[in-house]
Amino acid sequence: MRQGSRRYLVLIPVALGLLLVAAWAGLVRMGWPWPLPGRLMLLHGPVVVGGFFGTVIGLERAVAITRTWAFGAPAAAALGTLLLASGLAPLLGVRLLIAAGIVLCAVYVVAYGRQPAPFTAVMGLGAASWLAASLLYTIGKPVFVVALWWMGFLVLTIAGERLELSRMRPPNRHRQAVFLALVGVYVLALLVSITAYDAGSRVLGAATLGLALWLWQNDIAMVTIRQRGLTRFIAAGLLSGYVWLTAGGLLLLVHGGQGAGLIYDAQLHAVFVGFVFSMIFAHAPIILPALSGRAVDYSPVFYTHLALLHASLAVRIAGDLLALPSVRGWGGLFNVLAIVLFLLNTIQAVRRGRKGTAAA
Ligand code: HEM
Q: Which of 110, 129, 136, 311 has the most CB atoms around it within 10 Å of its CB?
């Protein structure tokens, strides 16, 4: 990261703080009897997607294209979410989230201009999905429709990143065409969901399932899982994430548009917690050094937060599908503890990394 941009690293603890606020709001929404300002109850979605992922993904992309204006996306995402969540200026907050989406789209247009590649276009569609979600949220579309577009932001961004990273095992033209066709169906399903939520949800489920199966077949993780150390850990994180992407796709396809409740919870969080956080756990040891210049010293202890994430999510989803809210509640609580354990293990790993660098 360029010296002049290091001041934007302050956005990382802000994003982590917003993630923990959103997780707390999610737990209270599940029924845990803890104190929470009323307005935050319904802001769980925008705070975690805009405040955490919008900021972190915006920061990663701004560092990648090394243009100062690009840091406008993570800065606006963080400030916008703070204004929305605190209730200080919710309207200005949502407008800043829209501005963040516009800047992130511009970042991908510049990146595509520099290197016209399908993976950049797919990640650009992810950014456009986030912008559309903020616009739909502003015009008062039901949050269950907006939630599908938030899902599009994260699924398309990650799928694009995996296509970019598959250059070590490049898919042939036919396979790439299948991938892009699936992305096309995915975007179409999002558009349909605005007016036909149930049909859009089911088609989105089918496209999600297709993307999951494509990633299973083509991701280099299928090869690197046989290696050792950090390489194997990353592959384990990716492949276990594809299990949840598959489950999320199936739940959307089979149950369609739910709008609220236990099945809705399972549909969303199989993807948001199972797939997205597995990707975060797998990529963090690579992305954090690129963002902060700090080495992350790998240790097999990383498997503890990954295993806890999957075990607790299996409990949560079982609670959802068997209509056992208390089981769901405990699963959800341990979802959050898995994320906290990830943060603690990563801080430890950075500390070890620093000692290692100092000793060298
Ligand atoms: C880690 C712990 C989490 C907990 C305890 C949690 C809890 C919840 C609950 C209880 C709901 C309402 C479902 C219902 O209608 O019954 C919900 C909705 C939602 N969650 Fe989470 N969630 C978590 C993580 C996440 C993550 C990581 C994301 C995004 C990346 C996310 C995004 C959403 C969205 C978009 C909605 C729908 C918005 C809404 O209906 O208000 N959640 N969550």
A: 129
Residue 224: phi and psi, rounded to 5, are -70, -15
Tell me the residue type at 303: Y
Residue 4 CB neighbour total at 10 angstroms: 10
Measured between alpha carbons, how far is 27 from 321 in angstroms, rounded to an integer? 18
pLDDT (tens digit per residue) in 51-67: 999 999 999 999 999 89
Report whether residue 26 contacts ligand 1, using a CB cutoff of 6 Å.
Answer: yes
Quote the CA–CA distance of 212 and 221 in Å, as a whole number. 13
Report yes or no: 149 and 132 within 8 Å, Cβ to Cβ: yes
What is this structure's pTM?
Answer: 0.96
- CB count within 10 Å of CB 86 equals 14
Considering only CA atoms, which residue is closest to atom 6 of ligand 1? 26
| Residue given tokens 């496209």 in the structure block | 207
Q: pLDDT tens digits for 76-135?
A: 999 999 999 999 999 999 999 999 999 999 999 999 999 899 999 999 999 999 999 999
d(CA 299, CA 286): 14
Torsion of CA 323, 325, 328, 333, to 10 degrees: 180
Residue 233 one-letter amino acid: F
Whole-number Å distance between alpha carbons of 261 and 257: 11
> Which residue carries 């594809």 as its tokens?
242
**Cα dihedral sign, 38-41-45-50:** positive
**Ligand 1 pocket test, candidate residues 27, 48, 158, 252, most atoms within 8 A of CB:** 48
Nearest CA to ligand 1 atom 30: 272
Say how many Å lie between the CA of residue 340 and the centre of ligand 1: 17
* Residue 42 CA, ligand 1 centroid: distance in Å: 10
Distance CA 255, CA 185 (A): 19
